[in-house]
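Morning. Coffee machine broken again, so started the prediction first thing and wrote up yesterday's gels while waiting. Chain of 128 residues, entered below exactly as on the submission form.
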Amino acid sequence: MSTAKRVFATESTIINAVTLSGTTESLSSDVDLETNGYEGAHVTIDAAFDASGTQNVAVKIYGSLDGTNYDDEPLFSQEVEVSAGNSVQISLIIKDLAHFKVGVAHVAAEANEATITAKEQSWRWDIS
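Came back before lunch.
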């Protein structure tokens, strides 16, 4: 009898301590679920808010078939609520896309910018 289990790729950093600039969106590197047959990815976004921060951070997911041409509108969007002087982490599960990028930006003008780090760990099924 075979047993199915998830096999995880090595965790990778897709946004590395990027300080946001106003409402300008910063994009992660491409997450390729297609090439090695991955089904999905566990993504974490850590927002380190300035002690005087006042604005939430918008997190958006953009899909792609080829890792070159990404959606103009996000597939998914969520806000990370500001917590002045603290770091807030959220997790997202992204499944069944060939490629995707994560976009992050303040929802409104902000003089006290948050710093963002995002990581992902893709998985696929192994039946043995």
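The two ends are 8 Å apart (CA to CA). Going to sketch it on the whiteboard this afternoon.
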